[in-house]
DNA sequence: CTTTTATTCAACCTGTAGGTTGAGCATTTT
DNA sequence: AAAATGCTCAACCTACAGGTTGAATAAAAG
């Protein structure tokens, strides 16, 4: 794989993260996702509990669709929405990766503190794992 | 706890989710977080790799700070930024909750399909758990 | 004490997100 | 065929996000 290709791939991955995080940043859209977690539903059904116009909800759905979090298939005049089960994998992966680093650093700091407390002049010693 | 209090608490939780998801939706801000995952750093250090002005980065940092993902403590004229280790717990929780529901539904559908294939007239039968 | 360095504050510009309303287009119902 | 239903498209408005530049403030270095 050429360097340019790799960069392009990374770019789309970044863009996808952008889109999914942005999609999840709106409370209305999160509510829609939660609704769809129970069962698939038509646009009108989804819009019903909200105060805003049907059009506004329709727009939110399009954002979710563009981010890949929800999918649509038409059945006559009804548009049936459902969640794309794998769509959160990438964001979840990013978050877990970050937490892993943070935990590792916390772990190291804790180890250092313990060492300093026990023996202010010694270097590395035993370690006990498992943070969070 | 009175009903109004509960609603207020839910509202702030929602707002916090909004803020963190929105903070993570920007690639520059994610890069800043990744940088801070290695070690804490001053504003200028953080800004260095980016094309944009220092002021722009400063703004991004404020967004991250407002969302609770990064923390700041001043040391002389330097502002030292670091990540708030627990700040992703809530978003991570939300994502995991959603995935749990999705997986449960996928599981149920799969079970149904297996049943129909094996014995098109029978009802519930054995179940094997563990998705993903 | 003057100058440099680190950072924020304030004003401004441009694009886009999220909402509205009013048509318009298919499909289903009568 | 006509009317009702489900949904989108298009134009528009307002607010805010993300960037710029040009001070202003605070601490450190000369």
From TrEMBL, chains A, B:
<dbReference type="InterPro" id="IPR036388">
    <property type="entry name" value="WH-like_DNA-bd_sf"/>
</dbReference>
<feature type="domain" description="HTH arsR-type">
    <location>
        <begin position="9"/>
        <end position="105"/>
    </location>
</feature>
<dbReference type="GO" id="GO:0003700">
    <property type="term" value="F:DNA-binding transcription factor activity"/>
</dbReference>
<dbReference type="InterPro" id="IPR036390">
    <property type="entry name" value="WH_DNA-bd_sf"/>
</dbReference>
<dbReference type="InterPro" id="IPR011991">
    <property type="entry name" value="ArsR-like_HTH"/>
</dbReference>
<dbReference type="InterPro" id="IPR001845">
    <property type="entry name" value="HTH_ArsR_DNA-bd_dom"/>
</dbReference>
<dbReference type="Pfam" id="PF12840">
    <property type="entry name" value="HTH_20"/>
</dbReference>
<protein>
    <submittedName>
        <fullName>ArsR family transcriptional regulator</fullName>
    </submittedName>
</protein>
